[in-house]
Amino acid sequence: MKAEDMIDRIDEIGTELHFNHFPAGWAWAVDSPFQWTKQVASHLGGVRNPLIVKWPAKLKATGETRTQFLHVIEIAPTILAAANVPEPRSVNGTAQTPIQGKSFLSVLDDAKAPEVRTSQYFEMFVNRGMYDKGWWAASLAFEPWDPVRGEFDPTKAKWELYNLDEDFTQSKDIAAENPEKLEELKALWWAEASKNKALPLDWRGAERFSAEGTGKPNLAGGRDNFTYKGVLAGLPESSAPDLKNKSFSVTAKVKVEENANGMIFTQGGNTGGWAFYLKDGKLKAAHNYIDVAVYSFESDAALPAGEHEVKMDFAYEGGKEMGKNGTITLSIDGQPAGSGAIEQTTPFKYSLSENQDVGMDTGTALSTDYKAPFDFQGELEEVVVDLKK
């Protein structure tokens, strides 16, 4: 999203209405003096982190720095060595893969100690880096804020080369002056990636957040019908029925008084998802499209007091394409009660932290039409979700 697209909602930024994150420009700025940001494993701005160690009982050095190259895989071996605990080879009868890291207690004891890690490969979203004895080869494939990536040939991607002993900020690319060294590190990267099972490379962006699209395990996978009795709180999205890119319906048996309020069913929150609820007696449905637009619909008339079967039916019209449009239809006791069009739906993931709830909303409100937790007023006998693939 561009800055001009946010101007109309600038006063909302930083409030509970949105999933707040500082802009990419600031992410880069706070990584100074290094290039790039989180997710860019090709450059130190994406992988370098500080480490502070305090152990007064054993370490004589205080207020000193160390410049030896280390990797996060060294942390566990170092703690085990400090505690004089051997690395476990088996846990509850299951053989363990040996830890690849090495203890760096020697570096803590002596600022001039040799590096315990002289070579290390990096990869994330095909942004690749290779460190070897002071040299660093880097290949940037995609900017992390670019979700649309298309086809990519990693064998033809550009590589950069830096000598960290002379240029620790990676400010001068010396690939042209050292072609043989660059080819050596490129070949080493492919060998390390193969050995560490990083291949085949996956350069997709937002698509990788789709559990169905990537085949990630899901406790709800392989099922089309889900019945929930009474109130349900906090079912993770990854364990809930996947409502994305398909038609589905939510049917509930309720008993209410006049002008009842409360959440019947919700999945997601203020960054994307669905809500099916009562507000001042009227049946309502809403879809939040990645916090860019909220499509809301309500029944033509209020729900009378008594026992009813209410339904939200979504007919997806995008075929096999992702994130397309569809039509919402509300019904009360089998009779149509209202409908409307949704121009675009959330294609990959509703939230990094929200859940599915029945009878309440334990996360952020999906729309400003209600305030969480928005407990259901009345009796909620059951809620049935049907997926239509």
From TrEMBL:
Residues 47-178 form the N-sulphoglucosamine sulphohydrolase C-terminal domain. It comes from the Bacteria. Pfam families: SGSH_C. InterPro entries: Alkaline_phosphatase_core_sf, ConA-like_dom_sf, SGSH_C, Sulfatase. Belongs to the sulfatase family. This is Sulfatase-like hydrolase/transferase. It comes from Paracoccus broussonetiae.
